[in-house]
Amino acid sequence: MKAYKDFAEVLQDFFTIYLVKERGASGNTIKSYRDTFVHLIVYFKEHHKLDPDRLSLSVMTKDNILKFLDWLQNDKSNSVSTRNQRYAALRSFFNYMMYLDPIHMSQWKSICSIKMKKGQSETLNYLSVAGVKCLLEQIDSQTRTGRRNLTMLSLLYNTGARVQELIDLSPASIRRSKPHIIELFGKGRKKRLVPLEDNMMHLLEAYMKEHRLDIPGREQHPLFYNAWKDKLTNPGIAYIIRKYAAMARLLEPELIPEKINPHMFRHSRAMHLLQAGVNLIYIRDILGHVSVQTTEVYARADSKLKREALKKAYVDIGVTEPEVKSWERNTKLKEFLKGLG
């Protein structure tokens, strides 16, 4: 049997050359793929007693990859969607290996033949218009931080942006002359232009003036930033939302679900546009979906909601500091993975 290429070298080339230079993968994709291989290293260490510097492509068999995926789901409590996301990263790597190491083509093809696991479809969670309004009303606009948060969450809702798209915004992303638009970069660095309503633009103008983001030379500064002048993070924005959601829940518990996250603002905007009669094609363009079939999930959810409301009407009238893992301790491969993203 022909010798295998060095796993560490191949993996490094996969990230630095294939993903970054050839595919132009986004930072989020790089981080997601990195995390997958970190988990893979941990799995082989725990179950095959293989340290990262001894890990070889020869052990990357279909059977071992399937066991790894099951380990993610059973031992690490990953959901089916997360399991599938991890497998997608691995499949991308082994597709890459087909071209890089065709001598072992059958081995790589075997791994790529693994099917995505089917799971129960999740309920589409979103806030009502009243729920969004109630949450935003909890923000104290008399403080500088409050005004930032009000502008930020209003923009997150009004644009239907993904949270990373919001984080990556700068003053240069906004066209301040009419018609007002904002430039968002989504998955795969795909650009889309989303119109801004006048009220949203007035809020943004006041915010940028207060934070001196409207002066020359600050066009590339993060639009929303922390006390250290750095971009806000996904967990940071999620914390801000949960804080105001907890306040709103005390007042209107039926409007605010127990679990809430930034992506729920995106779902809410899409549902409200659909309910207002906006065509799915336009909603697709606003959200940045490649296919309208992705956007149709909102139409299906809305139809289900209407059916349930009609059924209910017959019986109910009314308004109703983490532990250091073994893989983190030393080796070049581990340091490389940790340095990504």
From TrEMBL:
Under the heading InterPro entries, the entry gives: CB, DNA_brk_join_enz, Integrase-like_cat_sf, Integrase_catalytic, Integrase_recombinase_N, Integrase_SAM-like_N, Tyrosine_recombinase_XerCD
| Keywords carried by this UniProt record | DNA integration, DNA recombination, DNA-binding
What PROSITE patterns does the annotation carry?
CB, TYR_RECOMBINASE
- Domain Core-binding (CB): from-to ranges: 5-98
Question: One short Pfam family name for this protein?
Answer: Phage_int_SAM_1
Q: Which domain of life is it from?
A: Bacteria
Q: Name one GO biological process term.
A: DNA integration
Q: Which residues form the Tyr recombinase domain?
A: 122-311
Q: Which GO terms describe its molecular function?
A: DNA binding
Q: What family does the entry list?
A: Belongs to the 'phage' integrase family.
Q: What is the designated name of this protein?
A: Site-specific recombinase XerD
